[in-house]
């Protein structure tokens, strides 16, 4: 019996690693697109959790600083396979792009890939994936007029006030509105989140998160060890950023360009490469670390910038389930989930749509790719290849 349990756990962990690695090699388009890929693979296809649990996890990660899509992936891994499952989900999703960016920093420093046709194709794929995810989530999370209205105001506010704190403010307001509107609602689709982490361990993760945030800058000033200085810079950047990888860019630039770690030209070249690879944009840290200190620097930078995300999601998940069982919290979460749909729609327009759909042929290709996902049920990796190859051919003949 123990052997069967061990074998089942091994199979679960192996599945987490393989699925997350596939996502890490095919998930182009930034954090909102990643949530679309996760929704397709984890929720629609494998049904590792229900729609509402996924939406609640997304809402939680919108509150937390750091790379939201990576935290959602880590959270899914933890709920599926424990702490080690979360680690494997992180490694699978993150390290394909980490490896590519480290190699890029070491071997292809001045190669311009920004104008390649297949890069534009991958942006168009992201449009189709996000549209498909929003369509599915909106049906589940905004079924009535009240929640449609909350989503509408979230769209308008997100587009009118595009700041790092806007999303957090929208979610707080939506939670308060939901608390008032749905306080007498009975949640019929509630399902318990399985979080195989003790609250004591979770509390330790939160304490460690804040302790490192306070102690690392102090130790940095007392020590001449440059690896420690680099770790502190990346850890702080990963701890203090709301809004995803694009927001972390100015923080990283201020940390490393003026100090001479890397030139402005090298910084921008690496950022262009980070746009072209799948996975989280925070892996840009791997490029900076490798450009400054070789592949070892790339690994140190990656660990440092993602460590806050891991500590925060592991530290909050066990308490999150208790909160969402509270009758008052259920109404608030109904409002928050509707707002998340609105935030996704706003992000779908800006920057995903505006940076990808530049001509009628782009829209035509999106329509085909969306149909492949939504109606023909084609696997996402086939859709990715179709978009990349299709745009490459169009760029040649056009």
Automatic annotation (TrEMBL):
Protein name listed in UniProt: Chromate transporter
Membrane topology classification: Multi-pass membrane protein
Record InterPro entries: Chr_Tranpt_l_chain, Chromate_transpt
Record-linked Pfam families: Chromate_transp
Tagged with keyword Nucleotide-binding: no
Similarity section: Belongs to the chromate ion transporter (CHR) (TC 2.A.51) family.
Membrane-crossing residue ranges in chain numbering: 83-106, 118-138, 150-181, 201-222, 234-252, 272-292, 299-320, 332-349, 381-397
Gene Ontology cellular component list: plasma membrane
Signal sequence segment: none
Alphabetic keyword roster: Cell membrane, Membrane, Transmembrane, Transmembrane helix
Source species taxonomy: Bacteria, Bacillati, Bacillota, Bacilli, Bacillales
One term of GO molecular function: chromate transmembrane transporter activity
